[in-house]
Amino acid sequence: MEDFSREFEYRTSRSGGPGGQNVNKVSSKVELRFHVDNSELLTTEEKALVHEKLSNYITQEGYLQLICQTERSQLANKENCIQKFYELLAKAFAKQKVRKATKPSRAAQQERIATKKKHADKKASRGRIRHSDY
Fold first, then answer.
1. What's in the keyword line of the UniProt record (predicted)?
2. Does residue 54 lie in a domain region?
3. CATH code at 34?
4. End-to-end Cα, the chain, rounded Å
């Protein structure tokens, strides 16, 4: 995978949630922004794939946006964002295997029918016993 780091934009801000004084004074939340259409490293087909598969992460301006704020340090959050970016790209570019339709084997069919019969017998045995002698 190519190095996209020169095309990244970073924004930092203070994280939300618990953490006391550290959260209130340190900008540890990192927002990674990557403009998909302006990328020089992606081909037009790859850009279309990214738009199609990662549309939930893309803003109206065309930025792929990731936010990381789980760690206490800005550097760790930045590294998490970069790692998450590359994982998302790899997932978007991965080819999905074509499923070949197959029929179940004879043994699998017989096992399924035997299981159904056993289950039916168990249910039938729970019913009320009716005597026609009365």
1. Hydrolase
2. yes
3. 3.30.160.20
4. 82
pLDDT value of residue 133: 62
Residues in the chain: 134
The contacts of residue 36 (CB under 8 Å, 6+ apart) are 42, 47, 50, 51, 58, 62, 63, 64
C-alpha radius of gyration, the chain, whole number: 28
Q: Tell me the C-alpha distance between 22 and 27, whole Å.
A: 9
Domain assignment of residue 102, yes or no? no
- Extract the tokens encoding 96: 């999905």
Number of domains in the chain: 1
For residue 111, pLDDT over 90 is answered with yes
- The answer as to whether 51 is a domain residue is yes
Most confident of 31-35, 77-81, 112-116: 112-116
Asked whether residue 61 is domain-assigned, the answer is yes
Taking the C-alpha atoms of residue 88 and residue 97, their distance in angstroms, rounded to an integer, is 18
Domain limits at 27?
A: 5-93
Q: What is the pLDDT of residue 84?
A: 94
At residue 3 the predicted structure's pLDDT band, cuts being 50, 70 and 90, is: confident
